[in-house]
Design goal:
This protein is an alpha/beta fold. The chain has 2 domains: 10-39 and 147-286, Rossmann fold (3-Layer(aba) Sandwich); 58-137, 3-Layer(aba) Sandwich (Rossmann fold). The protein is built from 11 helices and 10 strands. It has helices at residues 16-21, 40-54, 69-81, 99-106, 116-120, 125-135, 148-159, 176-185, 202-215, 238-251, 260-272; strands at residues 10-13, 24-29, 59-64, 84-90, 109-114, 139-141, 167-172, 190-195, 222-225, 281-286. Strands 1-2-10-7-8-9 form a 6-stranded mixed β-sheet, sandwiched between helices. A 4-stranded parallel β-sheet has the order 5-4-3-6. Helix 2 (40-54) packs across helix 7. The chain binds pyridoxal-5'-phosphate. The site of pyridoxal-5'-phosphate has 18 residues, from helix 2, helix 3, strand 7 and helix 8.
């Protein structure tokens, strides 16, 4: 099984606000790594799919909400690399399926649903046993695709950057991608995570846990920024939407409201507030997430 990342460009953003602050902003266009397995999802899945193949598992099962980018990516990856896939979806089935779940089904994924209470206990032995009874032997990937092998994959995002930089930043949902960037930095330079959910204080503990699981050590050169969630996961406001529209028009790079829009808004705001020294080069990791949709649809 060949899992080779297509080279993804790094694009410098030219903007008066950056010039004024004396800061360089480069965007690593990870979203272009694969047409359907976009961005960080590709890196998270890489070593998990290799492990599933090595263990002789033909079926990969994972969890997600009805709009999960990870479920979308897993279905596409299963289709491309010859795995059966099962998506365990939070909540009740809705007919017709939304675009994410319809895509998953069209790419061969079987869907099953857990009510919210069972979904909270999805990692418990009881629920896993029930799933095994229903679906047989499978390779399990946690919600959001984040585990030790995902961190190992995301560490390669850093080695795939051939520009010099001081700070690397990404949007955080589970913290797995940020843990990978921190592992990839090996203690040099700085990593910043922008939490996209409210009450994201727990995310720092998650990152610490992922690092321990993946590389068995900790680093100090990173920070979780909690001030740019816009009210919570997938919440937005007119200011964020206006920022995204303007950014897309000026720079021709699509953003969405859940992850990459908040990342970019946060960086521009922090730059304007003088939080980066003059001369700093920042790489913003564009983690994809649009799957062919236009950003604000
Ligand atoms: C586009 C996009 N960006 C960022 C993230 C957040 O990644 P993580 O859950 O590893 O923090 C996700 C979720 O996988 C995503 O789909």
């Amino acid at each position: 099984m060949l899992l080779i990342a297509h080279p993804t460009p790094i694009q410098e953003i030219h903007d008066a606000r950056l010039e004024q602050a004396g800061v360089r902003l480069l965007i690593k266009r990870l979203g272009l790594v694969h047409p359907l397995i976009s961005g960080n999802k590709w890196y998270k899945l890489k070593y998990n799919l290799l492990a599933a193949r090595e263990q002789g598992c033909e079926t990969v099962l994972s969890f997600g909400g009805a709009y999960s980018n990870h479920i979308h990516a897993l279905a596409a990856a299963g289709h491309e690399y010859g795995f059966k896939t099962i998506g365990v979806i939070r909540g009740e089935a809705h007919c017709p399926l939304n675009a994410t779940l319809q895509f998953a089904v069209d790419h061969g994924m079987r869907l099953t649903y857990l009510n919210r209470e069972d979904y909270r206990r999805k990692a418990s032995a009881e629920i896993i046993e029930k799933l095994k009874a229903g679906f047989g032997y499978f390779y399990l990937i946690p919600e959001g695709g984040s585990n030790a092998l995902a961190v190992k994959g995301c560490a390669e995002i850093v080695s795939d950057i051939d520009e010099s930089f001081d700070v690397i930043a990404c949007a955080c949902g589970t913290g797995g991608t940020l843990a990978g960037l921190i592992a990839g930095l090996e203690g040099k330079r700085r990593a910043l995570g922008i939490a996209v959910l409210k009450g994201g204080g727990f995310l720092s503990d998650e990152v610490t846990k992922f690092l321990q699981m993946a590389i068995g050590r900790q680093y100090e050169n990173w920070q979780m920024v909690l001030d740019y969630h816009f009210g919570g996961y997938a919440k937005t406001n007119a200011e964020l939407i206006a920022f995204i529209r303007q950014f897309e028009t000026e720079h021709g790079i699509p953003l969405e409201q859940v992850y990459t829009g908040k990342l970019m808004y946060a960086l521009f705001d922090m730059i304007a507030r003088g939080e980066f020294e003059r001369g700093t080069s920042i790489v913003a990791v564009h983690t994809g997430g649009l799957q062919g949709r236009s950003s604000l649809s």
